[in-house]
Amino acid sequence: MSTRIGILGYGNLGRGVELAVKEAPDMELVAVFTRRDPSSLKIQTAGVPVVSVNDVADWTDKIDVMILCGGSATDLPTQTPEYAKLFNVVDSFDTHARIPEHFANVDASAKEAGKIAVISCGWDPGMFSLARVYSNAILPDGNDYTFWGKGVSQGHSDAIRRIKGVKNAKQYTIPVDAALEAVRSGQNPELTTRQKHTRECFVVLEEGADAAAVEKEIKEMPNYFADYDTTVHFISEEELLTNHSGMAHGGFVFRSGKTGVNKEHNHIIEYSLKLDSNPEFTTSVLVAVARAAKRMQDEGMKGCKTILDIPPAYLSDKSGEELRAHLL
Ligand code: NDP
Description:
The protein is α/β, with parallel strands linked by helices. It has a domain of 171 residues: NAD(P)-binding Rossmann-like Domain (Rossmann fold), CATH 3.40.50. 34% of the residues lie in helices and 26% in strands. Helix 1 packs across helix 10 and helix 2 packs parallel to helix 3. The site of NADPH dihydro-nicotinamide-adenine-dinucleotide phosphate has 24 residues, from helix 1 and helix 10.
């Protein structure tokens, strides 16, 4: 029997889950839930109902895994503990510093209800976390490096949009080539924040705004820009829409570690992602994790988990026999 999937929240990730479920031979999309008026949403799959979140409790015996597609800033901290009381859930919560707190809240709900909740799945946290853990376990004497980009940072773009005089903005995070090469060549460099990434901003100004003042405010913004070399370009609204509406992203995780009697051998593990669509890749991970969540629940597990707790074979729709024959 197919794993029955629900989508809660229909933004970029919601649309991506819908596409990824279509590619999964062992899954079917049962319903999409939204906080907005359901009749205002047009989804891509014919025959799948769009339902108000207010009626979600009517669906507990019709859905095996609910994929939560709300935002990390304000939606998921409340939605994941709330819906883990009713369903097995998967989310993409990506505020790294708050993962322990989110885990504890979700764990309490899921354990009480006897459900499985897998949090913080996607690429970072998600596939990058797996790459870091595998490589740390294998090379205990070494250094970790994570680089992001080139890609749009939603948080940094929002921060620029909040500046007086700014109409719209996009911010790209870009890894510094020299730093990547130093890591790749086994130099084990100590890198400062400024040496690892640069930030490039494309800004549309309000009529009559002071460009020099906006540029200064961006470049001096603490936490967001002050510790980076930042370039600011002022462009028209049309140019922003035409050239900067893509959702590409990616990055690199490295572990550079030593073995040998005199630590004379250096090993470099590099995991990289080049994503044309950040949400479509993220949701491809969420759907594979939903498959694993169902299997974990079938085995009697409950409570909050992360991608680190999932045996790799549980992510695949292929049998153990097929995996051993073709992918091992
Ligand atoms: P969106 O802003 O597109 O959607 C978030 C929620 O906002 C939706 O669930 C939807 O809820 C609501 N919404 C969407 N569109 C509209 C609209 N037009 N009007 C009103 N409400 C709307 O966010 P994304 O889907 O792009 O991203 C969600 C989260 O995913 C991000 O916050 C990010 O933290 C996380 N993420 C994690 C990654 C990882 O690697 N772990 C990678 C990428 C993203 P509703 O339908 O109920 O209104």
